[in-house]
Each structure stands twice: as structure tokens, then as C-alpha cells.
Amino acid sequence: VVPGETALAFYKAKNPTDKPIIGISTYNVIPFEAGQYFNKIQCFCFEEQRLNPQEEVDMPVFFYIDPEFAEDPKMAKIDLITLSYTFFEAKEGQKLPLPGYQ
């Protein structure tokens, strides 16, 4: 992807079980320092997705790398940015504790 140009990528998710799953995705950009230049325009992450038994879907992400990436001397040796996703089952009704509170 050329910095400043938009790109479209697809990630596959498959429910290999015999029951429906409602899941959610989070993303990660490596190397960490390049993350400030990664911009999602449209993404499936952080939204619950329902996958029926044995269903496989393509999930799109529309993004660009900020053109300032190419001007940052700290990014000069970075020629590969990896975008990865973790898709995990959402627990219906689960309340997560607030950090620092019991």
C-alpha cells in the first residue's frame, strides 16, 4: 500500500462449530510505532458479528496509511506494516469490571 492511497482488504472468519456464535474483533498494527499512521475508514472491528454454524464470511476493512508516514525519519527503515485481527466470542450479558474498581 502506498502511503496516502486507500486500500481494501478482506479477512475470513469461520464458525467451525454446530452452534451460532456472536463475536467481536479487535485489531493490532505492528510495528507499534507505525500504528499512529494507520487509518481505518470502514471496518468490521468492535462490532458484534453473528456467524451461523459452519458459516464462513469475508469481512472488509477500508484503510489508508497517512502520507506523513513517508516523511517521518523514525519510519525510514519500516517497509512492512502488519494489520491483524483477533475474533473472539462475545459473552451475552457479561459485565466487565472497571479498572481500579472492585
Automatic annotation (TrEMBL):
It is found in: Mitochondrion inner membrane. InterPro entries: CtaG/Cox11_dom_sf, Cyt_c_oxidase_assmbl_CtaG. Keywords: Membrane, Transmembrane, Transmembrane helix. It comes from the Eukaryota. The keyword Membrane applies. Its main location: mitochondrion. Interacts with CNNM4/ACDP4. Interacts with RANBP2. This is Cytochrome c oxidase assembly protein COX11, mitochondrial. It comes from Rhinopomastus cyanomelas (Common scimitarbill).
